[in-house]
Specification:
Rossmann fold, alpha/beta, single chain, 4-stranded parallel β-sheet, binds 1-(2,5-dioxo-2,5-dihydro-1H-imidazol-4-yl)urea, 15% strand
Length: 248
Amino acid sequence: MRIRVINPNTTSAMTTAIGEAARRIAAPGTEIVATQPDGGPVSIESHFDEAISAVGVVDEILHGERDATDAYVIACFGDPGLLAGRELTRAPVVGIAEAAFHMATLISTRFSIVTTLGRTAIIAEHLLEQYGFRHHCRRVRAAEIPVLDLEENGENAFGRIVDECRRARDEDGIGAIVLGCGGMAKLTDAISEAVGLPVVEGVTAGVKLAEALVGLGLGTSKHGDLAYPRPKAFTGRFEGYSGLRPAR
Ligand code: 2AL
């Protein structure tokens, strides 16, 4: 099967790292296509960044629809463009935040999230509410590292994440930790070892959930709100979406 793992930001080094983490966990016979939008923010750490990146995500799903894609993973912890993306395909589309929340509840009754910057905690909190996981999550914590530090200042970032994970372990009364950024995928095993708790990371969780859905023959429902969007005119810079129809 072919899984398109979309890094919604435009930092190629992060796309490569996400692709490698996805390939390491994927089953034999799963092909991982790691992509990023043509344009948009180099990192996603605000509501504005997220809004712009969502357009790039839907474009990547439209590309994937012409490339026999069996499933999609949106590899940013805000799950930008998730429901819009689902409207464009019959394939499963899995966000890394929702994937990590689901997996964490299967191995613990309570978890905490350790994300990058404090200002993005609200994005995770909104998703917990929206997806119905609020009472499973004890606390959303931030290591206060900018997303690109995961690429450019890796050792310092790793230390800060581990410190915050240890505080979560000791103070939050939890059984597991969810890592709150796609750029942390490559650090999962090392963090888990340093902290001594199960650490759930969304890129890897998302790939395994996508494989499971494809294996079960389950795809995005086209009955109701996730049906293909009604074809219509788009104006200005979005003119290219006019008359959009399913590719398959
Ligand atoms: C993210 C993420 O996963 N990728 C990115 O650019 N920003 N989210 C986050 N909370 O750091």
